[in-house]
Amino acid sequence: MFSADVGVRPACELLGVARSTYYRAQRVVIAKARPRPGRALTDAETTDLLETMNSPEFCDITPRQIWATLLDRGVYKGHWRTMYRILAGTGEVRERRDQLRHPQYERPELLATRPNELWSWDITKLRGPQKWTCYYLYLIMDVFSRYVVGWMIAENENATLASELIEVTCRRQGVDRAELTIHADRGPSMTSKTVAQLLVDLGVEKSHSRPHVSNDNPYSESQFKTMKYRPDYPKRFGSIMDARNWVREFVGWYNEDHHHSGIGLMPPRVVHYGEGEKLRAQRALVLEAAYAAHPERFVRGKPAAPALPEAVWINKPVEIDQNDSRPHESEVVIQTKPVRTSGDGMPAQAEIACQTSYVKLQTLDGAADLKARA
């Protein structure tokens, strides 16, 4: 109860509670029993009807059939809807045979606080030169840095090729296998035994989206949208080599030059290889000089360079969102992008170019042929 010296209004304003909420909480709601309709069957009639429906003659017959059969005999004990209500009240209404029910899939909740801790991969189609022809782009990206760590283009969707890509990418990145999680949707290649067994052999944990829930894999989905919304994205590719050349250039632009809004407007390569804070410090010096020259132009005070995200989530748990009301830069709707080899001494980017029966691994320091049955 409030003190006599404090009214409801100032107390509610102090606590940040609406007055309507306070008054509603003071109400005492007494549940009233629903009155029995005057036209309802009596207890004796209900018992008699239930015994009739459960008799050996009618135990395997639906209420509609029972109603019609009794009516033909000159007997009326109630409508078939009444029979259904009585059976439902005793728990006797259900499917006669066990029905196949969809399993309950767990909502994936994944956290990345550094590069090579959480990867996301997916496959998208690229239109070929003719109608009904297409090429398949396999692409793996690091969720924390948005850096594309591996990709390949093949003429079909194949679990063996996918496992080759994952294995080579893990080796090229030198990841700590015990701490890496690879997330994907539930496509046939993603859920295949070939890929699953490879991840077990590599010691990598796997994660899958829920069926028909695209938000469970937003990073890869947004990346493909970013790719296909590029001004120079062709309506169709003339050949698989055209597709590989175009994707190679796009991935190079994305990894090296694209300023990603989800990582402080920095290129993914900078964040992936730990150069983000250095670049942010350089930006801060430029902003300080601009502020010193014309402070009147910055109406909100001294500008600051966008910060790098400390953590990136796939489906942040609800309890964390409720406990932390601060805006998270990692929650920005993700713009995603792909990969290219760098020529500045950085670790070579794995690019797997798949032909009909071979997977050709091209790197800066050479090329190796990996046989794979397509």
Describe the structure.
By secondary structure, this protein is an alpha/beta fold. The chain has three domains: 1-31, no CATH class; 43-89, no CATH class; 111-321 and 329-371, Nucleotidyltransferase, domain 5. 34% of the residues lie in helices and 15% in strands. The chain has twelve helices and ten strands. The protein has helices spanning 8-15, 19-26, 43-53, 63-72, 80-89, 159-173, 193-202, 218-228, 240-256, 268-272, 276-293, 318-323; strands at 110-112, 118-127, 134-142, 148-154, 181-184, 205-208, 312-314, 350-354, 358-363, 366-371. The strands form two sheets. An eight-stranded mixed sheet has the order 6-5-2-3-4-8-9-10, sandwiched between helices. Strands 1-7 form a two-stranded antiparallel ribbon. The longest helix has 18 residues, at 276-293. The N and C termini lie far apart (75 Å).
What keyword list fits this structure?
Nucleotidyltransferase, domain 5; 34% helix; two-stranded antiparallel sheet; flat; 15% strand; 3 domains; 374 residues; eight-stranded mixed beta sheet; 10 strands; disordered C terminus; alpha/beta; 12 helices
